[in-house]
Amino acid sequence: MSGKIKRVMKNRIKLFTVLFYVVLVSLYATIATSAVTFDHYVGDGAGLSGPHDVDVDGYGNVIVADFHNGRMVKFASNGTFISEMYDPFGYPSGLVFDSNGNMLITDYSAHRLAIFDSNWDHVRYLGDIYDSGKLLYPYDMAIDSSGKIFVADSNHNAIKIFDQNYNYFGQFGFNGSGQGGFPNPAGSLRIAIDGQDNVYVSCWSNPNFQVQKFTNSGQFISSVAVNGSGDGQFTKTAGVAVDSAGNLYVADSGSKRIQIFDSYGNFLETFGTPGIGEGQFSQIGGISLNNNNEIFVAEYENNRISVLTPFLGVGPQGVQGKLGDTGPQGVQGKLGDTGAQGVQGKLGDTGAQGVQGKLGDTGAQGVQGKLGDTGAQGPQGKLGDIGPQGVQGKLGDTGAQGVQGKIGPAGADGAQGPQGDPGMIPAEVSAMQAEFSTMQSQIQALVDEIQFLRDRLPQVNRKEK
After folding, report:
1. Percent of the chain with pLDDT over 90
2. Beta bridge mates, 203
3. CATH number belonging to domain 60-310
4. Which residues contact 127 (CB under 8 A, 6 or more apart)?
5. Which residues pair with residue 151 across a beta bridge?
6. Domain ranges (residues) in the chain
7. How does pLDDT run across 286-314, given as a tens digit for each residue?
8. 263, 318, 341, 432: which could join 417 in a potential S-S bond, CB 3.0 to 4.6 Å?
9. What is the DSSP code (8-state) at residue 174?
């Protein structure tokens, strides 16, 4: 009978352990759902014609490259029209702001960059036929942390680089479909740079490498996804952007959606369907993010800018942080650590540890208290009575809860969780946190049950003997 009891107890321990991990995996999968939603339009009904790109200036205004109208248009963040500018442009196709607030625009049909200051006063042109590093149908550009300008030069099948003083610096890319190639016709080359100065290039005409990742010196690192219509696959890529967590956003104009990948190229989420309604797209041009990681999508066939809420899927790391919430058990284990200090309290009988604290100053007199065995100074030796706290430290010696506290190191991984909270956490996640607290109580009960069963096993073994 005792052998049967042992088997039952061991099976229950295994069952509780499996249930513990099932609960955690289920919770992770629930919290990791997408939070991308449609928010509002900018420029809808404002007479836009084929807007090819969009960006946000230092004041939060939304700037649109209105391709077929040959103009730049400024809107407030809520979509209110502010102003417009004709340079004259041929067809403005891309724009970006540098660290000084200057606006750089790719003028596709004029084969140059047009540069304006923060007041929209013209500064200069760059890359036309009279410059070294001349451009031929430039489509998009991005700027790295040092101020170097990377221009997607479509008909030269290359990314051309200019330094912060607008001097030609170099280029990379070639006409071909291999790694690092942008085959002819190069199509609508789009470009983005992440916080590590890695360069992402979208080129839909390369069937094997529609989105490629390079160092800022042009060395090929990797490609993202493959051709296809499934999740994490592309049919015709367009704009690219990178958020503050390093997640990559790719406009898949062929499939009428935005796809999101982590910095390693792993698929995270997709948003959008074909159509003209909210959260639906037709042909997509450039995309960009503001400081709050809101997503701005230039829809050049629907003639508007769609604004989407931030993607909280940077949250997979954040979810791991939530698992760290089980760390409170580890905190209890840390009470055992205070017990270790209690052991030092025993040294306090000699007064040596007293030097380390304010009480330690009197503890020095406690050393004299040992001489006080003869009398007078001995009463001061009562400072050594702090040692009973050292007895509490023996609770730490029981170690049982402290061992459970080892779950707490998972909480250390959870410290990465704050990266998962770049935006507002939806109300359903708050509800899930409340449910998770209930799960914690249940898991603690399971852990207590497991410990009880483990404590009983030695008794059963003794009975067998």
Report:
1. 46
2. none
3. 2.120.10.30
4. 111, 112, 113, 133, 134, 135, 138, 151, 160, 162
5. 141, 160
6. 60-310
7. 999 999 899 999 999 999 999 998 866 54
8. 318
9. B
